[in-house]
Design a protein that fits this description.
The chain is α/β, with parallel strands linked by helices and 276 residues long. It has 2 domains: 232 residues, TIM Barrel (Alpha-Beta Barrel), CATH 3.20.20; 33 residues, no CATH class. It has an 8-stranded parallel barrel, surrounded by 7 helices. The protein starts with 5 loop residues before the first helix and ends with a helix. 40% of the residues are buried. The structure holds 3-methyl-2-oxobutanoic acid (KIV). 3-methyl-2-oxobutanoic acid (KIV) binds next to β6.
Length: 276
């Protein structure tokens, strides 16, 4: 597979080719999904919930995302790696926004950053793009605003909210973002947004009319059971595999059927005789 760039995203949109994105947070998972041909990897702040066990994404820090981006990058050859900017890393000032995003690119090796929000953060997005940092937008359910939204809810259901989403999407495109994640948006609204844009939309809980799809890897592999949103499809049941493998390991250690001869190392008999 060819190395994916921001231009590939635009080309795929033009050619009506759906774009695939998964989250990953570590080297070995990134390597597996990169080798399987995934086009883009998001080091999402969802790691706060799936990896760190928080209730939401608000406690995730720049250092957390940086640490995991470095690991993902080491496992990735072709996929386009996007680092998610965590809560408060792009809200305080333009200077801090550029410094934090710059670290994800310079130290983490990400090719782009993702920010949640529309017109409220347009100055930050503009500054990042002027600093030559590619930006992926994120509209609809923006989990960092969970306290303002009053929970993890479908967004854009009223006429006013739907119109704002369309306006925000057009604004982000004008500012120069290369793609927009649409999360928990009614499918028909997401289709309208996608049709109005020249840049691709990547949906999560936003239906088939988006130009691509993203899922949180722990959700789609069946590893995260605290909460499963309606839009998740489980492509594997690793929870069952992990539980069974762990039970087998415990049993075999207890009854001494593991380790077997083939798992052990030998020592020279002569050396051994001197040890008794
Ligand atoms: O943090 C994340 O994983 C995300 C996806 C849900 C798009 O933002």
């Amino acid at each position: 597979m060819k190395k994916i760039t921001t231009q590939s995203f635009l080309k795929m949109k033009k050619n009506n080719e759906k774009i695939t994105m998964l989250t990953a947070y570590d080297y070995s998972t990134a390597k597996l999904i990169d080798e399987a041909g995934i086009e883009s990897i998001l080091v999402g702040d969802s790691l706060g919930m799936t990896i760190l066990g928080y209730d939401d994404t608000l406690k995730v820090t720049v250092e957390d995302i940086l640490h995991h981006t470095k690991a993902v990058k080491r496992g990735t050859k072709n996929a386009f790696v996007i680092a998610d900017m965590p809560f408060l890393s792009y809200h305080i000032s333009i200077e801090e926004t550029i410094r934090n995003a710059g670290r994800f690119i310079q130290e983490g090796g990400a090719q782009a950053v993702k920010l949640e929000g529309g017109s409220e953060i347009s100055d930050k997005i503009e500054a990042l793009i002027n600093a030559q940092i590619p930006v992926c937008g994120h509209l609809g359910l923006t989990p960092q605003s969970v306290n303002m939204m009053g929970g993890f809810k479908v967004q854009g259901k009223s006429e006013e909210a739907a119109k704002k989403m369309i306006d925000d999407a057009l604004l982000l495109q004008e500012l120069g973002v290369f793609a927009i994640v649409l999360e928990c948006v009614p499918a028909k609204l997401a289709t309208i947004v996608s049709e109005k844009l020249d840049i691709p939309t990547i949906g999560i809980g936003a239906g088939n009319g988006c130009d691509g799809q993203v899922l949180v890897i722990q959700d789609m592999l069946g590893m995260y059971s605290d909460f499963t949103p309606k839009f998740v499809k489980k492509y594997a049941t690793l929870n069952v595999d992990i539980e069974n493998a762990t039970k087998d390991f415990i049993k075999e250690v207890k009854d001494m059927s593991f380790p077997e001869e083939k798992h052990t190392f030998k020592i020279d008999e002569e050396v051994l005789s001197k040890l008794y």
